[in-house]
Specification:
93% helix; mainly alpha
């Protein structure tokens, strides 16, 4: 009976191990498939991380470009304002100089008329040459 029991145990162990072998192999295949899937997922994660980083870098670059362009627009607006102020100043200066020229022309015309009225013929050339310009 002991022998029968030992033989029974051996056969049962063999049967269990034979019946478990396909199950173990199936589990091992599942485990390998899962490990492969984990590797693929890690690879995809790294790819996505690189893409995300590059997308974030692109967004940062675009934001910097936008900021630079806004600063450029502000600088151009300031330049336009300064040019408009300079234009106004120059127009005022031109008007002042035109008034001064007109007044000098009137004074010169009055001086010549005064000379003509007093018949000062000898001083005409002297008067003309005494000016800084003709």
């Amino acid at each position: 009976m002991k022998r029968f029991f030992i033989l029974f145990l051996c056969i049962a162990t063999a049967a269990i191990s034979i019946s478990q072998t396909p199950q173990i192999e199936l589990l091992q295949k599942q485990q390998q498939a899962l490990q492969e899937e984990i590797k693929n997922t890690n690879k995809l994660y790294l790819d996505v991380k690189k893409q995300t980083t590059s997308i974030l870098d692109r967004i940062d670059l675009i934001n910097k470009q936008i900021s630079s362009r806004k600063e450029l627009i502000t600088a151009q607006k300031n330049e336009i304002t300064a040019l408009q102020q300079e234009e106004l100043r120059l127009e005022a200066e031109i008007e002042r100089l035109n008034k001064a020229l007109k007044k000098k022309q009137e004074n010169y015309a009055n001086a010549i008329q005064g000379m003509l009225k007093h018949n000062v013929n000898r001083n005409k050339l002297f008067f003309i040459f005494s000016g800084k310009s003709l």
